[in-house]
Specification:
- The structure is a single chain.
- By secondary structure, the chain is α+β, with helices and mostly antiparallel strands.
- The strands form three sheets. The protein has a four-stranded mixed beta sheet with strand order 2-3-5-4.
- A hairpin with a 7-residue loop joins strand 2 and strand 3.
- Helix 7 packs antiparallel against helix 16 and helix 10 crosses helix 11.
């Protein structure tokens, strides 16, 4: 089921407008009040000074010629409190928090009513379902069993590639990410985009550098726990095989710096040409199952990595792929269906996860170390992988409706259709679960 996106994506418009109207970083003094604002759930935007700059955040004891950044922001940074459910904080975090609170006000307003029909009722039902902790605890993994059975029944790598395509717009993971977004060299038009994928940790460096060795080890334990909870046989060895496979993918993946190059990441190709360009992967089945096979082109981002990842896919045993798929699928479904016991060292790409104590029921009280200031934690994080100290509030883990450019816009000839805006009315589509903690 795909809902159309909300007109003029609320999150995007609020964030862009606020960013343009406020000063860059000297507006930070109000961030010290972020936890209080979150608890009161105020949907009123902060204002700073008379023209968007709060001079109270300056540190005038510092000479601007010595350190202009601290001169402009020193007091604000000293007073800023990082909310316990986030690993860091800044201007765009504050804007995102405000947007989430405004979305919550809209959705909970609908959920409190019993006279709804049509799209409003769908939105209310979605929220009520996501917040029904008791039912999720009761159902446990039952909602995922049908999908897990499908994975178990996959008989070939071609079928697995098709399954990756079919689940790319739900809770699935794939070796290649596909989505619809603006064509960077054809203003006013959308195009099918593709990027490297296949990693469960936030970045390739988590696999390749000693800095994150403990995170990589904790991630392997997490995969083992997720597979064990899903009833997968040989979970420990499967977890080792999955991490080894992802490490190979990390070795050939582009760095974040390389992936920010707008010129190098613009590589349009005909879909049919990928069969020869990156053999070893069932591209036809992948695109067909994702309902994008009629697109006239796909803009490939990390073009030199794609053939190498396709070869890794071809060389990987089917059983490892079949273990990898449910481990990622269970992770992405966590906000929707309760997992029996959330591992104490939990993480999933691209955003680090928080965790409750092992065997804690879904919805249990969070761990709550003291609040910290400006990147100096006064207590250990709740997970071996994340720097967050408290799990996020339950309502923040719901599949928030939002605007977007993905599955709801997957039309056959997107690259030839002018962009007509985000759509009209109150309809929504689900935000991709890999953006949820």
């Amino acid at each position: 089921m795909h809902f159309k996106p909300l007109a003029k994506s609320l999150i995007s418009s609020i964030a862009i407008a606020a960013a343009l109207l406020s000063a860059p970083i000297a507006a930070m003094p109000a961030f010290a009040e972020a936890p209080a604002a979150a608890s009161s759930e105020s949907t009123v935007a902060k204002t700073y000074g008379t023209w968007g700059f709060d001079t109270a955040g300056m540190d005038k004891s510092i000479k601007p010629g010595d350190d202009f950044f601290d001169y402009a922001n020193g007091t604000a940074l000293k007073n800023m409190v990082i909310p316990g459910d986030q690993p860091g904080y800044g201007s765009f975090n504050a804007l995102y928090d405000l947007s989430e609170l405004r979305l919550k006000a809209l959705v909970t307003g609908l959920a409190a009513r019993n006279d709804l029909t049509g799209e409003d009722l769908k939105i209310a039902d979605l929220y009520r379902s996501a917040m029904n902790v008791d039912l999720k605890n009761q159902l446990d993994l039952k909602p995922a069993q049908a999908e897990l059975a499908k994975i178990a029944g996959i008989a070939s790598k071609d079928d697995m590639a098709a399954f990756m395509g079919a689940t790319s717009e739900t809770f699935g993971s794939a070796f290649f990410g596909i989505f619809v977004y603006d064509d960077a060299k054809k203003p006013g038009y959308r195009a099918l985009q593709m990027s490297q994928g296949g990693l469960g940790l936030p970045d390739r460096d988590y696999y390749l550098t000693d800095t994150y060795a403990d995170k990589k080890a904790a991630y392997e334990v997490y995969i083992k726990d997720m597979l064990s909870m899903a009833g997968y046989p040989g979970a420990e060895q499967a977890a080792k095989d999955i991490v080894a496979m992802e490490t190979k993918i990390a070795e050939v993946s582009w760095t974040k710096i390389e992936s920010r190059d707008d010129t190098k990441t613009y590589n349009p190709m005909a879909l049919k040409d990928l069969n020869a360009y990156a053999p070893g992967f069932n591209w036809d089945g992948f695109f067909a199952a994702a309902h994008v096979s009629q697109a006239q082109k796909v803009i490939v981002a990390q073009n030199t990595a794609i053939p190498k990842i396709a070869k890794i896919y071809a060389d990987t045993p089917l059983e490892t792929l079949k273990a990898w798929k449910p481990s990622t699928r269970s992770t992405r479904a966590r906000p929707i269906c309760r997992i029996a016991s959330i591992p104490a060292a939990s993480n999933s790409a691209p955003r680090p996860c928080t965790a409750l104590p092992s065997n804690a029921p879904y919805g249990s009280a969070p761990l709550a170390p003291p609040t910290t200031r400006w990147g100096k934690p006064s207590a250990a994080p709740t997970s071996a992988i994340t720097s967050r100290r408290n799990p996020r509030p339950k309502w923040k883990t719901c599949p928030w409706p939002s605007g977007g450019h993905e599955a709801a816009h997957r039309e056959p000839d997107l690259d030839e259709r002018p962009h007509q805006g985000q759509g009209a009315g109150k309809a929504f589509h689900l935000r991709r679960q890999d953006r949820l903690p």
